[in-house]
Amino acid sequence: MSTLSLALRNIFRNRRRTLFTLTAIMIGIMALVLFDGFVRYTLWGLQESTIRNGLGHLQLATAENYFTTGNFDPFRYLFTDQEEIVSKLQALPEVKSVVPQVTFAATLASAEKSGIVMVQALPAEFSRSLLSFRQIVAGRDLQAEDRYRVVLARGVAEKIGAKIGDTLTMMVITRNGGLNAADLEVVGIASLGLRELDNIQVYLDLSTAMDFLDITSVPLLITVLEKTEYTGQVKETITQAFNGKTGQPLVVKAWDELADYYQQVQGFYDTLLQIIRFIIMLVVIFTIINTMTMSVLERTREIGALRAIGTQQNGIVQLFLAEGLWIGLLGGISGVLLGLVVSSLINNLFGGIYIPPPPGMAEGYQAFFAPSAATVGRNFLLALVVAVLASLYPAYKGAKLKIADSLRYL
Amino acid sequence: MMVVSLEQVYKEYKLGKTTTTALNGISLQLAEGEMVGLMGPSGSGKTTLLNLMGGIDFADRGRVFVYEQALAEMSDRQLAAFRSRTLGFIFQSFNLIPVLTAFENMEYPLVLQGMAKKERRRRVEAMLTAVGLTAVKNHRPDELSGGQRQRVAIGRALITRPKLVIADEPTGNLDQKTGKAIMELMKQLNEKEKTTFVLATHDPMVVSYTPRVLYLRDGLIVREEVR
Questions:
Q1: Among B99, B124, B161, which would you mutate to test the A interface (most chain A Cβ atoms within 10 Å of its Cβ)?
Q2: Inter-chain touch B95–A305, beta carbons under 8 Å
Q3: What are the distances in angstroms from CA B168 to CA A264, B46, B93, B107, B206?
Q4: Is B203 on the interface with A (CB under 8 A)?
Q5: Is residue B56 part of a domain?
Q6: Within a domain: residue B103?
Q7: Pairing state of beta strands B87-90 and B164-168?
Q8: Residue B39 has pLDDT above 80, yes or no
Q9: Are B83 and A301 a contacting pair at CB < 8 A?
Q10: Residue B210 forms part of a structural domain
Q11: ipTM
Q12: Which of A9, A309, A402 minimises the CB distance to B89?
């Protein structure tokens, strides 16, 4: 008969108390599994929307400065050997598409109002794949033959009072320093999810933009990969393959280096998760300490008898730690299972839960729970470690009892 | 060789503001193979004396030696090993482990000694037969009668073949017939293995088996009978 089997029998001596303790751990771990799953889904959603809202997985430019000030001076950073770089990138198996893009600031005016906008111009055939999280809320998206037609973000349309079919005038400073103006027909209005983008973004077909700006190449190549997981590895490949082999310097940025908002949200959720984990674990710790202390008190005579027949102090410590281990194991397993069952029920039976628009977002979303094996494993391990740690003090107290006093205890 | 030796041992207990003298300067020597009865009214110091001999309590003054080793100078680890290998304890109120069966309760001290499973089983089965509990070996203490529990406790104390057995009212919960059977078992062990027994009791039947009887009152040996 081992310490573990003796401990297992001991924890079921007071069934009701053990059940309450296990329930507390189970609910705590379930809550962590659910919250981990919620955060994981939300961050995944934000990651994919960030990538498909025009950022792509990797961005290639000719200078570091392009990523900070390039939108206001795109001409300085134009590729000189664009065709060669594009064909090399397209040869990589992980690369889904390479999208040339130019982004620039312009003034957009209706008959009554005008405002500064940020123009994102890419070949219209890539709009759906690269801007797939963008929702056309009125009219239609740009098509390949849509020369001098424009799609406005909802906030921009509202600010300058434009609707489908209106003609707007766009003004821009060209490569040679001259002022160019063009009339553009509004064919669509889009919602971008992020409020800050909704108020400034405008979309043109790349050929219109190049014509309009009087350029023959672009300053930015956006690479979309087959899967987001490939990002790091492809960045490494590109950096090594192109380093010093192109006429211009080449700077490669991964999507997460460019997505400040994503980083902030991730940091926020990480902190929140840690605070919640800390609070839940504190509740679990005190529940277990209470249970184990009661157990030591109730079994004072028994501890005295065990010691009198030759059990070492260590043996008593090991016995109570083993009881804590069992409580953590059973509570952890049931908590993880309950968390997975509840996640699956909410996802499949109720179709997720509706989350109102978070700060900075234009629209709410349907959240699902996507707990990963890693987070589930981490929460389970946490239950084990916390249960054993919480048993340390009661176990020590039990081991330090004076034998003769324990045997007299009523 | 002296198994137990006490030199001018004093022990007091404090309960709130009251101090009770349990042992008041006792000196005593027990030789190997002795079977000694301790008699005296409640509160005379019998249990305290047994606790000091077993190394589960310590004297305020004076010295206690067991096999010429001063118990007060031993570490907790050494004391636990001493209790496991040299000593057998029989408690007045059984003190069995409630979650273990009669078999497992008896087996436990052998597990502590690290004995192989096969040898443990052989010894436990033999002890169960000796104390007449084979039929209830898989019962837990709460499924046993008072007498059966006491027999499990006795079996647990004797199973390691200790050199010194300390028993506090060993037959207190047994009927006359079972009590006698248990005392016969102890006598056999005493004669065959030279096991030393110290038995605190109120039962004249028990002291009829002990050639030496010490009478305690107010923490002192007031009379000694050697038959």
A1: B99
A2: yes
A3: 72, 8, 9, 21, 11
A4: no
A5: yes
A6: no
A7: parallel
A8: yes
A9: no
A10: yes
A11: 0.91
A12: A309
